[in-house]
């Protein structure tokens, strides 16, 4: 049987930091209000496109794996904030990393997107269709934020993470997974004025309205991710005590804490970085995965559980068996173009447009 071993990992975080204090200059809020409700202290604002974030993360993952883009058979980009819809953004990433002839596809399952894409790529390896894939989660979520609304202005950030997976005979990589979608309540988290449902000929399309019902999302996220983790543990014939690391979607610290309590996972086994980056949607899991390796939380042969919940309402849980290597073959060198602006300077036009709408 073939498996999809994770051989490379990489991330890309834009340098401009948007602190809670800076946001309080834009909307009526303060650091205490934000941190007590979300666990977020700061987030990143990108000066480049989603494709450029994804490209840098993918190049760093390739360097870590010690392979070239030309070795890749498949590029899967999980994003709900693509640079372009037509052509797909993955095709530009494929071009940028030199993955000549590789299949390229965008995957939109919102915050669950990376785990959906990892499942897809692993299944293709197991079926013998491909040998090497790069799976990326990249988002420019600040592009959607309505800076006149406090509830969404404090939550989201930009960034990207990626992994390289390669076919092997060793039982490792994505070993068990459960994905699904509760579409009956999809309207509790959505953007109302985006897409071809909008009649752009009768009225101008204003700032994005990213709407969500916080309490309902909290309940469904905790239950959905916890139930999915239970299902995956049963499939993999594992107990909770067998799990070495929990990497949850970084949407809200309260949600992470509730899942950890429900699964009875100790704090020292949980990867949390929401305080630094906010909610980067499909990018949260791969960024957290990279940092879990960097911080020594992931060790050779670690049993990793990851879970996510997003708009749709999509959900996913995955059991990943790590391999023996926890150090890059080559150090990451991909960087973004230089940025001289602060986060608020980058957002100045968007903030004025939202406040005047």
Report on this model:
- The chain is of the alpha/beta class and 357 residues long.
- The chain folds into 2 domains: 169 residues, Thiolase/Chalcone synthase (Peroxisomal Thiolase, Chain A, domain 1); 147 residues, 3-Layer(aba) Sandwich (Peroxisomal Thiolase, Chain A, domain 1), CATH 3.40.47.
- Helices cover 33% and strands 23% of the residues.
- The protein is built from 11 helices and 13 strands.
- A 5-stranded mixed β-sheet has the order 1-7-6-4-5, sandwiched between helices.
- A hairpin with a 3-residue loop joins strand 12 and strand 13.
- Helix 3 packs across helix 4 and helix 7 packs parallel to helix 8.
- It is globular and about 60 Å long.
- The chain starts with a strand and ends with a helix.
In short:
It is an enzyme of class 2 (transferase). By secondary structure, the protein is of the alpha/beta class.
Name its key features.
alpha/beta, 23% strand, globular, 4-stranded mixed β-sheet, 357 residues, Peroxisomal Thiolase, Chain A, domain 1, 13 strands, 5-stranded mixed β-sheet
Topology of this structure?
Blueprint lengths: L2 E10 L3 E4 H5 L6 H8 L3 E4 L4 H16 L8 E5 L10 H8 L6 E5 L5 H14 L5 E9 L9 H4 L4 E11 L4 E9 L7 E3 L18 E3 L1 H23 L8 E4 L4 H11 L10 H4 L6 H11 L8 E8 L3 E8 L21 H14 L1
Parallel strand pairs: 4-5, 4-6, 11-12
Antiparallel strand pairs: 1-7, 2-3, 6-7, 8-13, 9-10, 12-13
Helix pairs in contact: 3-4, 7-8
Pathway: Lipid metabolism; fatty acid biosynthesis
GO molecular function, one term: beta-ketoacyl-acyl-carrier-protein synthase III activity
Keywords: Acyltransferase, Cytoplasm, Fatty acid biosynthesis, Fatty acid metabolism, Lipid biosynthesis, Lipid metabolism, Multifunctional enzyme, Transferase
